[in-house]
C-alpha cells in the first residue's frame, strides 16, 4: 500500500532532450536567397568549425530558398554544387525553387516568379538590367531557357523535401501538424505557415525550418526557425546539432559592410 503511494507521488524523470544520432554532426543552413557573400563566409566558418571539433560524421543540410531576392542566385547554385564535391551536402527544395522551375512552364508562372524575387535571379544569369527592361513577358519567357542552363534546372528539380536525423526533421517551411511525417504534402513542406507556426503542442519530431523570417533563431521547443532574412537583414544562420547539444553560427554583413562570423553556444 505505502509502496504504491510512494510510487504515485514519486517525481517523474525529466524527459531526455532531443538529439541527433551518436557520432553525427549536422550543420543546417537557413534560407540563403542569393547572398553568395554570406554563404561563402558560412562555408568557411563551417569548415573551420568542423576541423577544430572532435572527429564526427558530418552532414550539411541547406533548408531551401537558395535563389531569388539576393544578387547572386546563380553563384549560390554553382557554389553548392562545388561544395558537394568535397562534402556531404543535402539540399531541400524551397518554395522559391518551385517558383523558379514553374517559370519555365508558362508565362503567367514567370510573371509570379519575377514579382517575388525572380528578377534578381534572372539578372544573376548574365542578363543586364537594360536588357531586362526591354523584354516583355513573352520575350522573357522565350529567353529564359537560353539563360539558365538545363543542368541547373535539373539540379534544382532534384532537391529533397524532408530529411530526418534522430529526434529532428528538417524541412523548408514546416509540416501539417495534423498529419504524420510520412503523410505530409509537398505543398505544405514548401509553403505552410500559420497552421504550423501557431501549433503549440508536441510534434512527431522537432522541426527545423526556414521560410518564415525571424529576427533571431526562434526555438519554440517543438520547432526551430532559422531563417533570419539574409537577403534583407544581412544575417545568414546555421544551426549546429551534435548529440543533444545545439550551437549557432551566423555570418553577418551590416549595411553592405564586411562579412563577420559569430558563434553562440545555445540556440535562442
Description:
This protein has 268 residues and is an alpha/beta fold. The protein has a domain at 22-95 and 157-264: Purple Acid Phosphatase, chain A, domain 2. The chain has eleven helices and eleven strands. The strands form two sheets. Strands 3-2-1-9-10-11 form a six-stranded mixed sheet. Strands 4-5-6-8-7 form a five-stranded mixed sheet, with no helix packed on it. It starts with a helix and ends with a strand. The relative contact order is 0.17. The model has no long low-confidence stretch (mean pLDDT 95).
Features:
single chain; 268 residues; alpha/beta; five-stranded mixed sheet; 21% strand
Number of strands: 11
What fold name goes in the CATH topology slot of one domain? Purple Acid Phosphatase, chain A, domain 2
| Main structural class | alpha/beta
The overall pLDDT average reads: 95
Model regions low in confidence, pLDDT < 50 over at least 5 residues: none
Give the CATH architecture of one domain: 4-Layer Sandwich
> Looking across the biggest beta sheet, what order are the strands in?
3-2-1-9-10-11
Helical region count? 11
Shape: globular
Please report the first level of CATH classification, the CATH class of one domain.
Alpha Beta
Q: Biggest sheet, in brief?
A: 6 strands, mixed
> How far apart are the termini?
46 Å
| CATH homology superfamily of one domain | Metallo-dependent phosphatases
SSE order, as H and E? HEHEHEHHHHHEEHHEEEHEEE
Proportion of strand residues: 15-25%
